[in-house]
């Protein structure tokens, strides 16, 4: 097995310093996009592989999180396009264990991460977010959940900043109308 060069070791160290701190945020965003923990993990893994492969194009000290989210979003779009062109397939193993899967979904999970995620966002809010059209949901999540600026989001999604403002405004209004009853039930009064 060949030894790593000093340059390769430095690349690994820089990658770990710049990229690894953003794994949780990437997973949360991927989970919101895919609505499936397994798909979210695959998407994050794909993003990390691409980020490492093209790490030489990353300018050290710039916004690593925005760079990663752009890679993640592009990977999600590319994967979605691939899946939409494939005919539907049925996995025999999944069908044969259908009953076991349904039973397992009804039991309470012991996975701490799932429990924490469920407690962070109430089902009504999560469902309202999921019902937003993807363009609006993505911008709302990137701005209001992940805290990116309009400029960063515009760069990630490769759209004009005015489009970001418009999508954010419309997305928030859609959420507001969907969550009005939710708010009333919890004692919030509309202005």
Strand content: under 5%
What characteristic shape results from the CA principal axes?
elongated
Unreliable stretches, pLDDT < 50, 5 or more residues?
A: 106-110
> What integer value in Å does the Rg equal?
20 Å
The CATH architecture classification of the largest domain is Orthogonal Bundle
Number of structurally distinct domains: 2
SS elements, strand count: 0
Name the CATH homologous superfamily of the largest domain: RNA polymerase sigma factor, region 2, helix turn helix motif
Listing every helix as H and every strand as E from the N terminus to the C terminus, the arrangement reads HHHHHHHHHHHH
Helix percentage:
over 70%
GO molecular function: DNA binding; sigma factor activity
Family: Belongs to the sigma-70 factor family. ECF subfamily.
InterPro entries: RNA_pol_sigma-70-like, RNA_pol_sigma-70_dom, RNA_pol_sigma70_ECF_CS, RNA_pol_sigma70_r2, RNA_pol_sigma70_r4_t2, RNA_pol_sigma_r2, RNA_pol_sigma_r3/r4-like, WH-like_DNA-bd_sf
Protein name: RNA polymerase sigma factor
Explain how this protein is built.
The termini are far apart. The protein is mainly α. It has twelve helices and no strands. It folds into two domains: 1-84, Rna Polymerase Sigma Factor, Chain: A; 121-191, Winged helix-like DNA-binding domain superfamily/Winged helix DNA-binding domain (Arc Repressor Mutant, subunit A), CATH 1.10.10.10. Helix 10 (150-157) crosses helix 11 (161-178). The protein has helices spanning 6-18, 23-34, 37-53, 64-85, 92-96, 98-106, 112-120, 123-131, 134-145, 150-157, 161-178, 180-185. It is elongated, with a radius of gyration of 20 Å.
């Amino acid at each position: 097995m060949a030894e790593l060069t000093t340059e390769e070791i430095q690349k690994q160290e820089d990658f770990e310093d710049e990229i690894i701190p953003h794994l949780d945020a990437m997973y949360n965003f991927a989970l919101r996009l895919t609505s499936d923990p397994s798909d979210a993990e695959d998407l994050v893994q794909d993003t990390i592989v691409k980020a490492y492969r093209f790490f030489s194009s990353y300018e050290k000290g710039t916004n690593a999180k925005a760079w990663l989210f752009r890679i993640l979003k592009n990977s999600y779009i590319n994967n979605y396009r691939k899946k939409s062109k494939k005919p539907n397939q049925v996995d025999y193993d999944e069908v044969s264990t259908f009953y076991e899967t349904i039973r397992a979904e009804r039991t309470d999970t012991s996975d701490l991460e799932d429990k924490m995620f469920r407690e962070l966002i109430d089902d009504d809010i999560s469902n309202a977010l999921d019902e937003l059209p993807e363009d609006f949901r993505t911008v709302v999540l990137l701005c209001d959940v992940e805290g990116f600026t309009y400029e960063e989001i515009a760069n990630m999604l490769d759209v004009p900043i005015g489009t970001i403002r418009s999508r954010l405004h419309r997305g928030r209004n859609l959420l507001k109308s969907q969550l009005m009853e939710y708010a009333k039930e919890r004692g919030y009064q509309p202005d």
